[in-house]
Amino acid sequence: MSKRFYCLILVIVLIFTLLITGISDGGNQISKNDGSVYLSAIKQGTKGSLYWTNLYNGEERQRIPLYFFYMLGGLIFGSLGMTINHIFYLLGVIGAVLFVIAIYKFIDQMELTARAKLFVLIIAFTLNQGGISELAYPEVYPFNTLLSYPHLTLSSALYLFIVTELLNLYKHKDRLVSTKLLALNVLLGIIHPFMLFPSNFIHLVFMLRKLKVNQDLSLYDKIKAIIVNLTFSNLLIAPYCIYIFLFYTITSYSNEVSQGGLLLDVMFFKANITTIFLLIIGVILSVKFKLFRLSRTQFMDVFIIMVSIVICMLCPLPFQRRISEMLGFFIAVFLATIIIEKKLKILAIILVLINLINAVSFLHTQENYDVYVYSLPKEVVELQKYIDNRNIEGYFLADIYTAQFIPYISQNPVYVGHYALTLHCKEKLDRLYSDKTEAEWINFIEDNKFDFICLNKKDKLTAFILPAIRHLYTLLYENEMYILYGVGI
């Protein structure tokens, strides 16, 4: 597979990414909820901050050591005069470029013919195993990763670079340590620290496999080599990862994050039924054709990587879902390798059919769910301009949908705004949307001392609360979609 041909593929992918996201929309957000959090981080970065302040948890403005990638992007590109949405978009394009290069590096190191590498590339990059799974877990599959959040696209690229470097280390008998691996771990840890868990587990498995055949070393020397190499490769990023782990373990955020992060639930198995089916088929075929006895190691390499990810996914951690990142890619490479080794034309046809089905599924998802391309409605932009021009600062009460973007457009805290960043989010939502008399609404508002109340006219909360707030607040702004009330202005 020539580099010139792959450069052509890279150009096609980038053009597709540009078209599907759209420069004018300013971002390839999978979810309006999470996307606004990242845009909020970019905006804080444009203000010169590199330590993210959580504005989604009421008046308790906790400073959380997250989103350095977005804040650094905001700091650098904001100084060049770029808008926040376009910074978000540019970071996604940078991630897409590196992601495609990472796929090339991984496939290029395989001991296959140019035609076989091209086949692996096509299957690995386009095989999205299931329709609704693209909506539920988009970062698992290569094609969708291009359309995912910038940090997920970039972390997938770094993750693949790390695995490729581990394979290169394994092939050299005299090498176990890599400064390149040290640097990649630092970058991955800063951008997406959760992914260091599966990458280090794969590193451990590869070392165990390499040291197993080395009869010159004693058991003590082998254990020492494992500890030294894992320590060295994570030396610079380990303190930050320990801090992140303790933060999410000790604080109440662990419960909130786990609600959206656990993978072993009914939704996962329903959404990824094709993935599980293909994985089982691959293992059955491997046993049937005795592929585990191949003299070439590349088949076993991919199998070990794939199984290592699955083992990590079984660990009851609050970020289980993130561990599944790139699983679809390795399953696709695994199946493509089987097809090449045994010339299984029927399996190749099945994979092509699955790709065609997923192409239709992708278009259906685009049309019905509106989850990939997202830009702020003009009514929100008008509201943002009003808030910016008046330099409005204070504590906001808003309906759940409006509250998602208030911290982004105004840098003001909200009562409840994000399932994982608002502590006791469910209880707060139940309290907010429960039936109340006008007197109870007044008591609720006075107890929480809200400075501003911003509501979507179509949300049911507006009809409940409007009679009460008219006695306490002054109407400041109104457009076709939103109303903004304030006190003391």
Characterization of this structure:
The protein has a 4-stranded mixed sheet with strand order 3-4-6-5, sandwiched between helices. The chain has a two-stranded antiparallel ribbon with strand order 1-2. Helix 2 (32-46) packs parallel to helix 21 (400-410). It is mainly alpha-helical. It has helices spanning 3-21, 32-46, 68-78, 84-108, 114-126, 133-136, 142-145, 150-171, 179-191, 196-212, 219-233, 238-250, 253-261, 266-271, 273-288, 298-313, 320-323, 327-342, 345-369, 378-390, 400-410, 425-433, 438-448, 460-469; strands at residues 52-53, 63-64, 396-398, 452-456, 474-478, 482-486. It folds into 2 domains: 117-369, no CATH class; 378-486, no CATH class. It starts with a helix and ends with a strand. Mean pLDDT is 75; it is low at 22-30, 129-139, 256-267 and 363-374.
